[in-house]
Amino acid sequence: MAHVSTQGHLSPMVCPLAKLGRSAPTYEQKYNGRNVYHAGDKLDLPMQHSPSSPPSFVNRSISIGNYTESTNHSLLHYDTQTNFERSSPCLDQGYHTLISFASQCWQDTPFKGKRAQSKSNAFDRLPDEVVLKIFAWLSSSDLSVCARVCKRWEILAWEPSLWRTVILKGEDVSGDRAVKTILRRFTQPYVQRLYLRDGARITDKGLPSLVRRWPNLTHVQLQGCVAITDSSVSELVAKCPNLQHLDLTGCAQLTCINIEPSRRLSLNYLDLTDCCLIEDESLWLIVKNCPQLVYLYLRRCVKITDCGIKHVPIFCSVLRELSVSDCNKVTDLGLYELAKLGSTLRYLSVAKCDQVSDVGLKVVARRCYRLRYLNVRGCEAVSDDAITVLARWCPRLRALDLGKCDVSDAGLHALAECCPNLKKLSLRSCDLITDIGVQYIAFFCRGLQQLNIQDCQITVEGYRAVKKYCKRCIIEHTNPGFF
């Protein structure tokens, strides 16, 4: 082996292995066509360069299996089918090269200590397209953590296609700070959906800056953002004309959504649960400017009365689902107005509206004959009379909650005969129900999937009847003798 001197003549060179008291490897020392090198050995390869200039470095291509990476440091080429001595640079490979060739892995950072040894990682050999599909299952908070792992993950984690939907959850997540970071990363309005839940919150400081940069938002969820006020929400609906889904659950400071008089929103989903400051006038303004509403939830909006409810069927003629649970100022008069929705209404919840009785429920049953779900839990003035009318006029019922209602076996008998497709039934705390009523339900409604008989006078006989005829039914009970 010889080196090229600066004068262009060949000069003899001592083999590096000879300095360590070893001889050059022989043919018998080769393993699967590769030379075996020992710890601390330096592998010298001649490099072509002119005598008057320093060696020039060309692009490097690292090929491991099907994965290829190109850099511009030195001429390296690894292939599992080529000899190792052809591709070894003038570089000390370290002890990790003695294990196997498949364990070679190049990193940008130098090795420090024994734990920095390169290891084979199947995930690193995945194509970018596959990694992006995996990352698509992560939340935005998880993606930001992945971006800190390495340079490749940082590039992939901030791929714009992964940020069309931003999901922030957890009490330790600051919505304002997270939005600021995302806005700094993306100059284009990629984001279309924003979800803040499970304690993640945003304030009036972060929301306006967000909507100015993301006018293409179609879905927004701001659960539990107690610092949000009317001004921010009004700017949200004004700057995002394509907004269809808006969830403001728990925004306790919200009193109204102010909209320009000449403008109509394209919202079809609105959830105002626990917005306890919403009043009748606010509800009138909201439904007037949202004529395309299909889903409207007003749970625990305790200031809403029949005067506000009567505006809902006037302006939202295509409404399919409505909940006024815990709105204890809603009475039979409000149900009479809601019945004007007719056959379009599929879902209705008046749970814990204790002023609702048989009179209002009968009107709803006769006019809204396509009801699929009805919740009258806690309406103690509802009796067998209303349930019998409901069963005859709404045979398509799938779910019914009669908890704490004044219902007996007679009402269950009529329900079982007229609604055989019933899937979910709750009879919790119905003191007048016995095994006979439950047996009627079990025999006629054999597709029943869920039955709640907690705090009822049901014995093992009724329990066995349900298990016999409703094979897949899940029974919720408080009787220890059923086990």
What's this, in brief?
Its main location: cytoplasm. One of its GO terms (cellular component) is centrosome. The protein has 483 residues and is of the alpha/beta class.
Textual characterization of the structure:
- There is one protein chain.
- With 483 residues, this protein is of the alpha/beta class.
- The chain contains 17 helices and 18 strands.
- The strands form 3 sheets. It has a 13-stranded parallel beta sheet, with no helix packed on it. The chain has a 3-stranded mixed beta sheet with strand order 4-3-5. Strands 1-2 form a two-stranded antiparallel sheet.
- α6 (175-185) links the parallel β6 (165-169) and β7 (193-197).
- It is globular, with a radius of gyration of 36 Å.
Coarse morphology: globular
Determine the strand fraction and express it as a percent band: 5-15%
Number of strands: 18
Average pLDDT, rounded to a whole number, is 78
Largest beta sheet: strand ordering: 6-7-8-9-10-11-12-13-14-15-16-17-18
As residue ranges, the low-confidence spans are: 1-12, 14-119
What structural category characterises the helix and strand content? alpha/beta
Largest sheet: 13 strands, parallel
Radius of gyration: 36 Å
> How many helices?
17
